[in-house]
Automatic annotation (TrEMBL):
Domain called Thiamine pyrophosphate enzyme TPP-binding: residue spans: 420-571
Gene3D superfamilies: 3.40.50.970, TPP-binding domain
Keywords: Thiamine pyrophosphate
Family listed: Belongs to the TPP enzyme family.
InterPro entries: DHS-like_NAD/FAD-binding_dom, THDP-binding, Thiamin_PyroP_enz_cen_dom, Thiamin_PyroP_enz_TPP-bd_dom, TPP_enz, TPP_enzyme_TPP-bd
Protein name: Uncharacterized protein
Superkingdom of this protein's organism: Eukaryota
SUPFAM superfamilies (alphabetical): DHS-like NAD/FAD-binding domain (SSF52467), Thiamin diphosphate-binding fold (THDP-binding) (SSF52518)
Domain Thiamine pyrophosphate enzyme N-terminal TPP-binding: 22-138
Pfam families, per the entry: TPP_enzyme_C (PF02775), TPP_enzyme_M (PF00205), TPP_enzyme_N (PF02776)
Domain Thiamine pyrophosphate enzyme central: 231-336
GO biological process: amino acid metabolic process; carboxylic acid metabolic process
């Protein structure tokens, strides 16, 4: 760990450290370098001369003077998003600071770590002289910036700088400090060991996920797939380092991947599971991505700061279940929606393969696979309108769809794609099939016109990679003055593509509703090739043909030119009447969406909060051959006068290695040596698959995680066991201290069920820390303890006992923790059950039932 104090250090010839006093601006520069900043973007002015002098003097910082502060903040944001580290922009007081507003809001909404430093007049002259004197902090705070403060005294600098850096880097937000010019030049007194480094700030999540977290996520993903839900993986821009893991996960689960626009390039769009971009400037964007998104039930969100497009419908209701996978926990958008499971780890590249390994182990043991995905989504399509016999291209125009199809093939695997807003963005998003490793930079939330060239400046200043800048003729003119900045910094490998159609295409082409035409969109443009030549970039190309060989040659020659002279331009002349399709989520009724949302969420809450949602009528596969053999046991079942139980098989932490069908057969043979072999090998496999499916469908991820990790539920070790109940046999009224799965193998089991009531899970919990299963004596003692303290208070009209079928042959009943019932066999026939339980019931004396409707139904004799 390094230190930042009132001094910097340099080495003398004899090796001794020499000390040099620092001012506030020099301290800020040291801190920026410690946080990985290499380039500072901004505009100049009298209120920041001290800070800019320090930046220019620092050997590890590059000052990028932008022609307008509007462009500077966009470049700083693009820099931060590209490198996933702190970005920094600087502006002088008054109009300089005012120009920053939209870019700061964009960075904040896109969840980009950005520090903005603006100058102020000398502290003693503020607020009583009107030249370039505005309350910057108040303006930015009102706009929603996460932190915006004025440093009015040198003693405030260190704590406020610390707070700003903490907010920016740990919550991925924008932070702003306004510093008077005299404070910038003042000497700073700091502790000798001032740990101003990003690694010294407290982290929100663990570097490495625990084994328990790994298995819990694996279980959650398996559960959702086995529940038959349509699942989609949705990636944000911060998922870029984890592309390999995401592709492997999608392939294993056999589910689609879509990305946000700035997440384009996280995965290769040529793989079968990739369905492109969803979420272009407030809408879905892609044709197939729209279909996939609308059909899905579960979103697996990878590093998604804003989940709105992922989990809501057009009416803003959450209509999809959410599994959230994050490298950072952030307040705001990411916490706005309910997640059925959350997983956080800084090192997702290491964690997700471990999750895959855990899933593989679980599914192999359960003998299940995920190959039932709706095959319709395999028919991928691009959303652009391509030329056809019915819609040929005019001879004097170049079709953007064809242009970007060819451009896609001529991009380096690590190219940086800088997108603007408008029809040009739609053409680019759909026409370029990104490969894993390419990056896309865009203004995702604000949709700022002119962003592309500023992003290209940031990318080309800080990397040597191929940089593609795509803008419309309207958007490009908003930042064309930055061509001079590109020249100042000798930027290389930048190819600018301008889609020229003489209008603001997205506004003009959109359907706004009855009586709204979208007028005022026609614009003129200079000769862009000559404009580039005037800035020192000659030999630009006008492309006015859709001949693909000419398109290919033009792109190839332009990239070659960009590598030699730094920047090249292609002006794609588009037919104004040709435009891409903007796909949108279908309109939804708020009432319908709300009902769907409540149904899903109530189901999840019911499982978590112990409400009754057990799939009591779900079936398990029994062949006619197996049924005949089980029916042959009726006489043996009726021959018993009291309940009989087999020996038990504690499931333990190796539960998934057990064959439930084999356990049943062994226990049946133990009870009745003359019993037939119930299952063939194929039938045994089918029974096991259904057993695991029913188990996964019946309980929450938390309950399943405890079961698979420890072989227990609510602290009680679970076991598999056969129960034989002769006719007219009754269990005492009881609550379930743990989850319980009952499979009917022969006959019927009835119950008096107490509806809408649960005993507290905490009260029923087994607190013993012993891993070994309890003895029969211990279980007996626990049951005696419960019998003396279990009470059902007056339920008035909230709950009542109902007489109903619990399970029968080939059916399953899942009892949740705390559920209350009295189960019994019919008077005319007994039943054979295969159960997963602890052997412990929390029996309730009938005298401890207070004013509950239906209590008169309960049996008072023939207890097992």
């Amino acid at each position: 760990m390094g230190e930042v104090s009132t001094t910097t250090r340099s080495s003398s010839e004899n090796g001794d450290d020499l000390l040099r006093k620092m001012n506030a601006s020099e301290l800020i520069c040291e801190v920026l370098v410690n946080f990985g900043v290499t380039h500072v973007f901004g505009g100049h002015g009298g209120a920041v001369v001290g800070l800019v002098d320090a930046i220019m003097a620092h050997t590890k910082l590059t000052w990028v003077y932008n022609r307008c502060e509007v462009n500077a903040v966009q470049a700083a944001m693009a820099y931060a998003k590209l490198h996933n580290r702190l970005g920094c922009c600087v502006a002088t007081s008054g109009p300089g600071a005012g120009h920053l507003l939209s870019g700061l809001v964009d960075a904040d909404q896109d969840r980009v770590p950005l520090l903005c430093i603006t100058g102020l007049k000398a502290a003693g002259t503020m607020r009583h002289a009107d030249f370039q004197d505005i309350d910057q902090g108040a303006i930015f705070r009102m706009a929603g910036i996460g932190l915006s403060e004025s440093v009015s005294h040198i003693h405030q600098l260190i704590p406020l700088l610390r707070n700003a850096l903490y907010l920016a880097t740990t919550t991925y937000r924008c932070a702003h400090l306004a510093i008077p010019i005299d404070v910038q030049l003042d000497s700073v007194t700091a502790p000798r060991f001032l740990n101003f480094r990003s690694e010294n700030l407290s982290k929100n999540v663990l570097d490495h996920a625990s084994d328990e977290q790994i298995r819990a996520l694996a279980t959650a993903l398996i559960k959702e797939r086995m529940d038959g839900h349509h699942m989609v993986i949705f990636c944000g821009w911060r998922a870029f380092p984890f592309g390999d893991a995401i592709e492997a996960l999608a392939e294993y689960l056999d589910v689609p991947i879509i990305t946000s626009y700035d997440g384009k390039g996280c995965v290769s769009e040529s793989i079968p599971h990739s369905f492109g971009v969803a979420g272009i400037y407030g809408f879905v964007g892609g044709g197939k991505s729209q279909e996939v998104l609308e059909d899905c039930d579960v979103i697996v969100a990878f590093c998604m700061s804003d989940l709105t497009k992922a989990v809501t419908d057009k009416s803003g209701m959450q209509v999809r279940r959410l599994i959230q996978i994050e490298s950072e926990i952030m307040a705001g958008d990411s916490n706005r929606y309910i997640a059925v499971h959350s997983f956080e780890s800084h090192d997702l590249a290491q964690s997700i393969p471990l999750v895959l390994e855990a899933m593989t182990q679980e599914t192999e043991k359960m003998k299940v696979s995920f190959d039932d995905r709706d095959q319709r989504i395999r028919r991928k399509s691009r959303m652009s309108t391509f030329p056809s016999e019915r819609a040929p291209v005019e001879t004097k125009y170049c079709h953007p769809g064809l242009f970007f199809k060819n451009m896609s093939l001529l991009l380096d695997n690590d190219a940086i794609l800088c997108a603007d807003i408008g029809d040009n963005a739609l053409w680019m998003a759909s026409g370029i099939s990104a490969v894993k490793g390419q990056r896309t930079l865009t203004s995702e939330h604000m949709g700022i016109m002119g962003f592309a060239l500023n992003a290209g400046l940031a990318a080309s200043c800080s990397t040597s990679r191929q940089v593609l800048v795509v803008a419309g003729d309207g958007g490009f003119q908003m930042s064309s003055n930055e061509l001079a900045t590109l020249k100042d910094h000798g930027c290389k490998n930048v190819l600018v593509v301008i889609i020229q159609n003489g209008r603001l295409g997205r506004v003009s082409n959109e359907t706004w509703g009855p009586g709204v035409r979208g007028d005022g969109c026609l614009i003129g443009s200079p000769d862009f090739v000559k404009l580039f030549e005037a800035h020192g970039y000659p030999k630009g190309k006008h492309l006015t043909t859709s001949d693909e060989s000419e398109i290919w040659d033009t792109i190839s020659e332009s990239w070659d030119l960009a590598s030699k002279q730094g920047v090249a331009v292609i002006v794609v002349h588009q037919d104004p009447e040709t435009h891409p399709t903007m796909h949108k989520i279908s309109a939804a009724s708020g009432e319908v969406a709300w009902e769907r949302y409540l149904n899903e969420m109530n189901k999840e809450r019911s499982l978590k909060d112990n409400h009754d949602v057990s799939p009591s009528n779900k079936a398990i596969t029994l062949s006619s051959n197996s049924i005949n053999k089980l029916n042959s046991l009726k006489e043996w079942i009726e021959s018993h006068s009291t309940a009989v139980v087999s020996s038990y098989c504690w499931v333990g932490s190796s539960f998934l290695s057990i064959s439930p069908a084999q356990v049943f057969q062994n226990q049946l043979k133990e009870l009745n040596p003359a019993a037939p072999e119930i299952f063939s090998q194929e039938e045994r496999d089918d029974f096991d698959k259904d057993f695991w499916r029913l188990l996964m469908n019946s309980f929450t991820v938390e309950e399943l995680s405890e079961l698979f990790d420890k072989g227990s539920s609510n602290g009680y070790p679970l076991r598999l066991q056969i129960l034989v109940l002769p006719k007219d046999s009754t269990y005492a009224l009881h609550a379930h201290p743990n989850i319980e799965l009952i499979i009917g193998m022969q006959g019927e089991l009835m119950e008096y069920k107490l509806t809408d009531y649960r005993h507290s899970k905490r009260v029923l919990q087994r607190t013993s820390h012993k891993i070994i299963p309890p003895s029969d004596e211990e279980i007996k003692n626990m049951m005696e303890h419960f019998e003396h303290c279990m009470v059902i208070d007056d339920q008035d009209k909230r709950s009542h006992f109902v007489d109903r079928l619990c399970t029968r042959q080939g059916k399953c009943c899942a009892n949740q923790i705390g559920s209350v019932h009295q189960s019994f066999s019919r008077k005319e026939s007994g039943t054979l059950l295969f159960v997963l339980w602890s052997g412990c019931h929390a029996n309730i004396q009938l005298t401890n039932i207070k004013g509950t409707k239906g209590a008169e139904l309960l049996r008072k004799e023939h207890y097992c």
